[in-house]
Amino acid sequence: xxxxxxxxxxxxxxxxxxxxxxxxxxxxxxxxxxxxxxxxxxxxxxxxxxxxxxxxxxxxxxxxxxxxxxxxxxxxxxxxxxxxxxxxxxxxxxxxxxxxxxxxxxxxxxxxxxxxxxxxxxxxxxxxxxxxxxxxxxxxxxxxxxxxxxxxxxxxxxxxxxxxxxxxxxxxxxxxxxxxxxxxxxxxxxxxxxxxxxxxxxxxxxxxxxxxxxxxxxxxxxxxxxxxxxxxxxxxxxxxxxxxxxxxxxxxxxxxxxxxxxxxxxxxxxxxxxxxxxxxxxxxxxxxxxxxxxxxxxxxxxxxxxxxxxxxxxxxxxxxxxxxxxxxxxxxxxxxxxxxxxxxxxxxxxxxxxxxxxxxxxxxxxxxxxxxxxxxxxxxxxxxxxxxxxxxxxxxxxxxxx
Length: 402
Prior knowledge:
Number of domains: 2
Order of helices and strands: HEHHEHEHEHEHEHEEHEEHHEEHEEHEH
CATH topology of the largest domain: Aspartate Aminotransferase, domain 2
Mean pLDDT: 97
CATH class of the largest domain: Alpha Beta
């Protein structure tokens, strides 16, 4: 991939001494086209959509309609009305956890590596409805076992399967299509958290056949506070509204209300129109680069970084030994050095920005009695030269603090 060409699109990388940004699993940088799309809204038609029929309001409405078409193409949805805009993956999963019908004894399955946003909402839903939350454990190297999953499905009345397609902890992906197919054999609804998948791989929701797929804008070059929840037309009909008010109803009296159809009934209140427009620009940009190209580039970077990390004293890499199974993420720890100290020193001494901590997967770290890790996560604008700088800085950290 012509990384130099794409780097030109990111203002933060064009400074005299650009940062080396390896925290992309948290949030990616934003290209000029996304910034311009948001700025155009704020300068030229900063008003309400779906309400006013004046020239500015109509322009907002048309821009949101266009963005919905972009999102539908991005995941290959059969219908535009299967796309609901929201603030992020977290909001989408909470919407589902509150809106799906659960009863006492129903089982909700997640994996043992779920981000808190795909764990806590289901834990609360289980407590609220007297359902049961069960964890499908991954193997020692972090990979997913279909046999363990199949046994969990067969063990009881599984109502919901909610799993991250790609782990933000170690970059491992589940066999999503097989997960969905097996769940449907047992009559379960499937929710796929695609926050870490959508920026890096093609999503074909018709092929996946999942009931719901959700992802955030800020991990695919889009603005924070934006996201997409896809659901099949049939799946949307099973939900009760989570938030109601303006934009969700066609008419009200003092005693009654009439809900709008999907997607409007799930998009309550004034929306982040600049964000939605920016999100559409981000999806178009990512597809311009090519998600297959991005994935290949990340695999190359991961292999390069892994080879160097394996030569450093005391480093333990989380997940499979084969970097090809870890996508664009390499997470590691050094037992004798505080993970935050590593991150702070890399930042201050080498201008390398990484993530340190438990990455919102506290449950996995607590279960394995690991304090945390340092995570390098790559994206389309990262280079092997940047990895060289990072590894040289890490060598110095080890020499000083170990």
